[in-house]
Write a structure and sequence with these properties.
mainly alpha
């Protein structure tokens, strides 16, 4: 079993927990503040994920999932609302053809929420404190990172970059210079 309490792993756990906490508080933050913090966290997550060593899997059965459908929907809706503010979208109504921005906001929210789900399941399993569970948390996360989560992190960074720096395009109403200031 790898050292599951190494500096590399504990730094990753802290960064993963910070991402989860940020998305859980998304509705309470200014839009620019949220996206500014995401802009800092996403590259850190990718870098720290790439540094993790993949240990051997300990348990034979699949580990517990901690993020419920309701948790996922709550985070997704909060993120879609924030992204929608940028593009000037209030909701996606059934029966109307989705515009490019509605599809983009839904996809971006889903990308951020997928990362949240993987990281939250990782953090909760790691926090169990049993060495085998902690080991398997790292193994499961690393497996997901190799298969698709690494690409999701990159796609989220790309989408966020375009949203933040393409202010001349349609949208970006919620990203004013003072929106990046800390809420007081």
């Amino acid at each position: 079993m790898e050292d599951i309490k190494s500096v590399t792993v504990t730094e990753f756990v802290a960064t993963a927990a910070a991402y989860c906490q940020l998305l859980e508080q998304a509705g309470k933050l200014r839009t620019g503040e949220l996206f500014g913090q995401l802009q800092q966290l996403l590259p850190q997550l990718y870098q720290k994920s790439a540094l993790l060593h993949k240990p051997r899997y300990c348990y034979e059965e699949e580990s517990a999932r901690f993020v419920t459908e309701e948790d996922y929907a709550r985070i997704h809706d909060a993120m879609q609302q924030k992204i929608g503010l940028v593009f000037g979208i209030t909701h996606m109504s059934p029966g109307t053809g989705p515009s490019q921005f509605e599809v983009m906001s839904f996809g971006m929210a889903e990308g951020f929420t997928d990362v949240y789900e993987s990281l939250k399941n990782f953090v909760k399993l790691y926090d169990v404190g049993i060495p085998q569970a902690m080991n398997d948390a790292v193994w499961l996360y690393h497996k997901g990172f190799e298969q698709n989560l690494g690409l999701k992190l990159i796609e989220n960074m790309k989408s966020l970059h375009q949203m933040l720096y393409n202010k001349g395009s349609e949208g970006s109403r919620a990203l004013q210079d003072d929106d990046f200031a800390q809420a007081g």
